[in-house]
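in:
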């Protein structure tokens, strides 16, 4: 049959095994399935019919022929829109002979949805997560300027998109043509989007060479060859493995959950009261306005920290946007904690008849990290261990809980070396096996490292984790108080910051601002010597020798003058001469051009010409946004100073963790949760737990080392019979890893915990039989 799309007609016909290989290059593939279950959306629905398109002609592929069709094209690249779903459908249909995940290993599978999100991140600074922004229909409109209608109905009035199940096991000749046309058109559209995105991303890599973090053209080419354009291959592997985590689900001890409900209600009330005391309503009429007002006030209280905004200039309030402020702004910590508890409580109460929840995950946020939503936000649970201990493994299994040690600092050290060409003292200490917190505490106290107390060590942790993102002393004090319960005086914060910079001198270069704000301001407002002279009658800048032949170019001196006008009631020159009325009129009139791009409070101040340090910071932050490359070659546009620096180490840490998750899943393990740098895995209770833990650890280190090859990566692990934040490795007298229980034994353990063991020195890897592992395959 002929399929029309974009003014062209393409021939589609049924594929039969006798045709053999019909494509010699990449082709798109789309699976239509029976309706996805509303009650169990994590289950993979059955394949009904597929279609493939290689740019010139297409084929319909029935259930019985799909395995043979894929086998006939073993080396070709597959292109999908939302590849994890289609691959799962094909894997379920084809069984053990399916090679789709082998192709992912070989980087021969593409996902236009992920390419779109990565391109938007690199050009607009977000990941197109709002409803409808990343559908195939939206991508066709954006990249091809065509329409791809999705509200198509069959002859009986049924919605075509959701009613393919009626054609299960039917031949194409028996299927109503509108269903075939809908499927075929999707494959043609995906092909067009794929080609357009690849071209746009290639161009983006060429024009983005002045972005902070860029090393060289050869470097970016190597990154894109290894990790995929803008890290596509990493994100695809992460998305597939995270879909498996969702499918696996987390089991709940129902009795413990019911006892926990009052605890959660108490915690929610406490957080709600705390937020109200800070001047913010969290629910009901007026709560959004209240939150916007609160964020405006906070921005003034935290100079140097950029509060994210929406396209409409309002403060962004999504978890993704606010995640950049976590730790730095205690109010945001409370707000997100309240949301998490409220969601958890509603999940617990609404699903008391369900002994299992299936959290969903977003593979990519602005920093490159993942996020969780759906049944449960499994990455932002309350800190109270009574919550985590409600989650238990399947009967006959135990949890292995594995997490990386200070992985973001490891990635920071690697970035300093390989991206910025700096000698990394931090990396040298990590490679020498040193404890960074204890090392810094020793410098601060003047004690030998072995004499540093745990309290002294704990007091500097906020510095090691807060300063790399560019925290000033004021923000550092708030971060230490909110995250670690440590109070710094102003002098202590300043002194600790200097000690930290002395300990890691490469950080002075790393934290230097690569963006010249006055220059950007001059460009953005067209502040040229000629324009200034024409509007003020003052031609001194035009006549200045340094501006000869550059009179019509944006002038950095004027940008600096403009910033002074924004921040001071009566600005003066360096010689103490007040700015003229004409100068003030020139700058304020130019600034009005950006009033619509600022938060309402700052826009009003600008239009009414009311200078203040807060207004100065707001405009400087607006013009100070810029792009940043991760060491894996992903580009993020429009990032603030703090966001750029956080992205440098958070981005690759997440990329390495996704590769690790992929490797662990491919090794056959059942992963039931993923929390940024932590994996929760179920293994048989009677197995050699140490051997399992060591094998998973090897895979996790290998995945991260693919991103961080020169700085030592290490992983801690523990076994437990329920999830617990404080769990640590415990070995019996024979050197066997055994489940941990809380201090005090069974009396202090949550209901249902069993076993009690003393801790001994961990056996060396040579004592463990990593080969003797009986795996429960996860595929």
């Amino acid at each position: 049959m002929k399929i029309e799309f974009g003014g062209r007609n393409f021939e589609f016909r049924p594929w039969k095994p006798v045709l053999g290989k019909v494509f010699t290059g990449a082709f798109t593939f789309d699976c239509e399935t029976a309706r996805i279950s509303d009650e169990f959306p994590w289950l993979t629905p059955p394949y009904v019919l597929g279609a493939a398109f290689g740019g010139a002609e297409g084929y319909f592929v029935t259930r019985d022929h799909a395995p043979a069709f894929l086998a006939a094209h073993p080396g070709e690249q597959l292109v999908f829109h939302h590849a994890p779903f289609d691959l799962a459908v094909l894997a379920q249909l084809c069984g053990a002979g399916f090679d789709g995940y082998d192709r992912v290993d070989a980087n021969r599978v593409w996902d236009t949805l992920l390419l779109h999100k990565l391109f938007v991140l690199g050009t607009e600074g977000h990941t197109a997560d709002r409803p409808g922004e990343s559908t195939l229909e939206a991508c066709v409109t954006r990249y091809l300027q065509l329409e791809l209608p999705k509200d198509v109905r069959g002859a009986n009035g049924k919605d075509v998109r959701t009613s393919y199940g009626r054609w299960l096991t039917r031949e194409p000749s028996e299927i109503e043509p509108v269903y075939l046309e809908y499927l075929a058109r999707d494959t043609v559209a995906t092909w067009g989007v794929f080609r357009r995105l690849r071209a746009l991303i290639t161009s983006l890599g060429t024009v983005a060479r002045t972005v902070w973090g860029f090393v060289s053209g050869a470097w970016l080419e190597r990154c894109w060859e290894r990790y995929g354009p803008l890290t596509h291959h990493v994100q695809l592997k992460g998305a597939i493995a995270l879909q498996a985590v969702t499918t696996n689900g987390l089991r709940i001890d129902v009795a413990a959950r019911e006892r926990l409900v009052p605890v959660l209600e108490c915690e929610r009330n406490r957080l709600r009261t705390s937020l109200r005391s800070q001047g913010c309503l969290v629910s009901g009429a007026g709560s959004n306005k209240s939150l916007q007002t609160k964020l405006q006030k906070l921005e003034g209280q935290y100079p140097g920290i950029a509060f994210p905004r929406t396209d409409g200039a309002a403060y962004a309030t999504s978890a993704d946007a606010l995640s950049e402020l976590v730790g730095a702004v205690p109010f945001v910590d409370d707000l997100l904690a309240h949301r998490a508890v409220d969601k958890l409580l509603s999940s617990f109460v609404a699903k008391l008849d369900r002994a299992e929840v299936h959290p969903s995950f977003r593979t990519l946020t602005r920093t490159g990290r993942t996020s969780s939503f759906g049944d449960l936000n499994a990455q932002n649970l309350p800190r109270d261990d009574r919550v985590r201990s409600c989650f238990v493994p399947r009967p006959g299994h135990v949890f292995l809980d594995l997490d990386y040690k200070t992985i973001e600092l490891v990635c920071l050290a690697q970035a300093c070396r390989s991206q910025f060409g700096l000698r990394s003292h931090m990396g040298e200490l990590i490679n020498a096996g040193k404890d960074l917190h204890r090392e810094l505490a020793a410098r601060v106290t003047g004690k030998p490292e072995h004499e540093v107390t745990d309290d002294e060590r704990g007091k500097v942790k906020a510095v090691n984790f807060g300063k790399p993102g560019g925290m000033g002393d004021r923000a550092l004090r708030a971060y230490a108080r909110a995250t670690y319960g440590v109070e710094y005086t102003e002098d202590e914060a300043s002194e600790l910051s200097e000690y930290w910079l002395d300990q890691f001198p490469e950080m002075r270069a790393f934290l230097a601002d690569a963006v010249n704000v006055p220059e950007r301001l001059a460009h953005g407002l067209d502040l040229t010597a000629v324009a200034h002279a024409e509007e003020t009658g003052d031609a001194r800048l035009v006549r200045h020798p340094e501006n000869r032949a550059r009179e019509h170019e944006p002038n950095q001196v004027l940008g600096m003058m403009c910033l002074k006008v924004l921040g001071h009631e009566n600005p003066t020159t360096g010689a103490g001469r007040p700015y003229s009325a004409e100068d003030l009129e020139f700058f304020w009139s130019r600034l009005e051009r950006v009033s619509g791009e600022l938060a309402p409070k700052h826009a009003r101040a600008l239009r009414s010409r009311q200078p203040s340090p807060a207004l100065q910071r707001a405009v400087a932050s607006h013009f100070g946004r810029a792009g940043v490359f991760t060491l894996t070659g992903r580009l993020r546009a429009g990032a603030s100073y703090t966001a750029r620096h956080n992205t440098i180490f958070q981005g690759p840490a997440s990329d390495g963790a996704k590769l690790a998750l992929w490797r662990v899943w491919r090794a056959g393990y059942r992963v039931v949760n993923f929390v940024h740098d932590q994996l929760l895995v179920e293994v048989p209770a009677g197995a050699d737990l140490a051997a399992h833990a060591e094998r998973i650890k090897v895979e996790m280190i290998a995945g991260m080392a693919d991103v961080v090859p020169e700085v030592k990566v290490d992983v801690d692990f523990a076994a437990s019979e329920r999830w617990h934040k404080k769990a640590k490795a415990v070995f019996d007298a024979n050197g066997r890893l055994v489940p941990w229980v809380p201090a005090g034994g069974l009396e202090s353990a949550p209901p249902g915990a069993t076993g009690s063991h003393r801790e001994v020195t961990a056996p060396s890897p040579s004592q463990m039989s990593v080969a003797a592992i009986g795996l429960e395959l996860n595929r």
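note: The CA atoms of residues 225 and 753 lie 48 Å apart.
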